[in-house]
Design a protein that fits this description.
The chain has about 110 residues and is mainly β. It has one domain: Immunoglobulin-like, CATH 2.60.40. Helix content is about 5%, strand content about 50%. The protein contains one helix and nine strands. It has one helix at about 1-5; strands at about 15-20, 25-30, 40-45, 50, 60-70, 75-85, 90, 95-100, 105. The strands form two sheets. It has a five-stranded antiparallel β-sheet, with no helix packed on it. It has a four-stranded mixed β-sheet with strand order 4-1-8-9, with no helix packed on it. The protein is elongated, with a radius of gyration of 14 Å. The mean pLDDT is about 85.
Amino acid sequence: MILQSCFPKDEPSITIINNSDDIIRDVYYWPSRLDTISAQISIESGNKIQDKFNLEEVETDGSYLVSFRRGNNTDLEKVNFGYFTLGASLDRSFTLIVMSDTVLVNSK
């Protein structure tokens, strides 16, 4: 109980920055063990979005997942990152930087 109380609870933040040359579209992000999707958006090149993961109803362990498509490409890219346990996040925030050929993930 003491260990879990040290973890940030309920709402770690997420920032997705599009540093690629293309729009990224059909962006979804959610804790990977939930069936509910937090968002479906598009992010223009050079722009970013900020939001929070709501873990209030999460009673399992798992990680976070972001998926998106680049430009007119129909291929779905998925990035799995971070970890939560029993609704408590091990990180307070995540920043995903979408580059032309990769996605960088930073956490605090």
